[in-house]
Amino acid sequence: MTTIRDVAARAGVSVATVSRVLNGSGYVGKDTEIRVKKAIQELNYRPNTVARSLANRKTGTIAVILPDIMNPFFSELARAVEDTARDGGFTVIFCNSDDLGTREQHYIEVLRQKYIDGIIFASNSMGEDDIVYMNENRIPIVVLDRAPGKSGCTVIRSQNAAGAVMAVRHLMETGCRKIAHIAGPGELITAQERLRGYRKAVKGFTWFDESLIVPGHFSIRGGERAVSGLLERHPDVDGIFAGNDLMAIGALKALQRMGRKIPRDISLCGFDGVEMSEWTEPELTTIAQPIYEMGRKAATHLIARIRGKAVKEDILELDVRLVERNSTRRRKN
Amino acid sequence: MTTIRDVAARAGVSVATVSRVLNGSGYVGKDTEIRVKKAIQELNYRPNTVARSLANRKTGTIAVILPDIMNPFFSELARAVEDTARDGGFTVIFCNSDDLGTREQHYIEVLRQKYIDGIIFASNSMGEDDIVYMNENRIPIVVLDRAPGKSGCTVIRSQNAAGAVMAVRHLMETGCRKIAHIAGPGELITAQERLRGYRKAVKGFTWFDESLIVPGHFSIRGGERAVSGLLERHPDVDGIFAGNDLMAIGALKALQRMGRKIPRDISLCGFDGVEMSEWTEPELTTIAQPIYEMGRKAATHLIARIRGKAVKEDILELDVRLVERNSTRRRKN
DNA sequence: TGAGTGTGTGTAACCGGTTACAGACGGAGG
DNA sequence: CCTCCGTCTGTAACCGGTTACACACACTCA
After folding, report:
1. Which of A281, A327, B61, B109 has the most crowded Cβ, counting Cβ within 10 A?
2. Do A113 and B69 touch (CB under 8 A)?
3. Residue B257 with chain A: CB contacts under 8 Å
4. Is the model's pLDDT at B313 over the cut of 60?
5. 3-state secondary structure of A242
6. Which GO MF terms does the UniProt record name (chains A, B) (predicted)?
7. Which CATH class is domain A4-47?
8. Phi–psi pair at A18, nearest 5 degrees
9. What is the tens place of the pLDDT at every residue in A284-302?
10. Whole-angstrom distance, CA of residue A136 vs CA of residue A138
11. Among B68, B78, B110, whose Cβ lies nearest the Cβ of A69?
12. The CATH number of B160-289 is which of 3.40.50.2300, 1.10.645.10, 3.40.50.1370, 3.30.70.240?
């Protein structure tokens, strides 16, 4: 492996000069620069990033901690982060937490020791104290879907409650008379907010009943299971708002197996807007979060923070939008 | 940040001794060890991984280069790699190549400069010369789904051709009389092998015709589009073997939209066994590769290589298996 | 002519670890 | 009593970069 000293020797200069040429910092004479560049060329020299990191205290690496890369929401997010990081000259370490607190702690420690430049937390069991710890260690972080904490870190969220209201309104406008909700895990803030939106939208309607809310754990299987119990209690449900697309897909499956036609018998609306929601038949109406955009923004802000740029807004709330597809089609009544 | 010298000072020993305690190497007196450990505790000292990497020429980081993390096949693979790496004390950098040669070159260079310990290539445009380059730089690599190269690197593959034969046989056994193939991109070796398997299985049947093979680009959209042209030319097709699950899902969608019942009118079989193939209605029969197992094996072998262990087999060919689900159900005739 | 400024370059300390080597000590063996 | 060896510990070089500081030189301006 050729080092900066080899280059210096070949060009007949000191290592400091080579370093200056490399980084374009300080003064370097015109012809000296040429000689150094020639030597670099000839030796096919590439600076050693690790040594650089040690001297700089910068690694050019960011990490993203997420529950599970196999969840399409997070793989899209990860993709966005990596694309953005690459453009900014960063590489990305990814960590699957499975929402396990211990696992997150482990990652945080490992990443700190690695001099990671910054972390994007898309994992849910992240606590306030983790944020404090990161601040103490001066590691910039960006978190997704957290309640606005007092701590100085960028938070990216989307309008979960407003989106849920949109979903229910849309179902009503297309002719639904009794709308159920398949809810995500109660401990997740996104699930809470979407449930809140649903409650707000159905408030005051005589048909509403608490038992129209069923848990679906944000998973396909959960969505599947939720449906059967629901339809037993409420055979006349004609609209379902699922707290995320995975549960909606599960519900769709279960309904089709039960012989219910979508949207003829029951309309179905998801939340998230993962690519997969286009892959079902019928395609799924959903409240789309700008997932890619969230990932991009998270990475952009993190990198800005790393570069020490003052970042104005600390909480970014992104718009969601209704993507109307065939799982909810207007019914004449 | 507390350093090894702080610990040494506090324990009243030299840095060498602290290092020995940390690594359990060399001789250390019993009581000295206790003193050092106490100092480490009290200062909450954690060794700096970057400095360690510089001295060791080891980073404890591996990379996985894949076409696109949003493709469920690769996200499952990535998940397996990360799980295995974590168990072995490694972290994982991931790189989306989009099968772009230039992008891969870029990553390879960046990763080399970062002293990466090893690389898993699941990307397709990787050339023989890249492998040579990695060997020159003594960076262990494992590649997936490549032709057995002469070069000294572990190759993990699965029985694509045999799997394709299984698929076609299965379709015939369940009553299909005319079976089409939606093929992946011709430049990908996996697609080639599956096509070869299809050809082998249909050889000699009078109903076979070259135009039963249609391209589907390994994507959902590709699968969708493939179907319409196919059914125009061959309205009597009653079985389709898709080269991967994504195309099968696309085909399923298109067929359902055309009013064809699956499996009543047409049977459908995919390839890969991604989790998503269970999420359709009907669920998809598929030739399952042990995706997680492939990722796990890739990581295990890579880590073994990194640790300098002699690895016996250089080519690992994993079994595929038929997962029979509702998209192919036996029809009485 | 001398001070002051801008430019170009080298020396050496530093980032925070690992480790080769040397020295000190105590006990066993001749 | 001397030698040899195993145990324990410290000094300092090294991994491969960055950069503070010192110095040299040329040029401008009073």
Report:
1. A327
2. no
3. 281
4. yes
5. strand
6. DNA-binding transcription factor activity; transcription cis-regulatory region binding
7. mainly alpha
8. -60, -45
9. 999 999 999 999 999 999 9
10. 5
11. B78
12. 3.40.50.2300
Which nucleotide comes closest to A3 if you measure CA to C1'? D16
Q: What is the dihedral of CA A80, A83, A88, A94, to 10 degrees?
A: 70
- Cβ neighbours of B219 (radius 10 Å): 17
CB A63 within 8 A of CB A94: yes
- Whole-number Å distance between alpha carbons of B27 and B48: 23
Q: Which residue of B has its CA nearest to A78?
A: B69
Contacts B75 to A, Cβ<8 Å: 69-70, 72, 75
Nearest-Å Rg of the Cα atoms of chain B is 26
CA closest to C1' of D18 belongs to: A55
Same fold, B59-159+291-319 and B160-289: yes
Q: Give the CA angle between residues B303, A80, A278 to the nearest 5°.
A: 105
**Does at least one atom of strand D sit less than 7 Å from the CB of B237?**
no
Backbone angles phi, psi at B199, to 5 degrees: -60, -45
Cα A169 to Cα A162: distance, rounded to the nearest angstrom = 11
SS3 state at A297:
helix
For the domain made up of A56-159+291-319, give the CATH fold.
Rossmann fold (3.40.50)
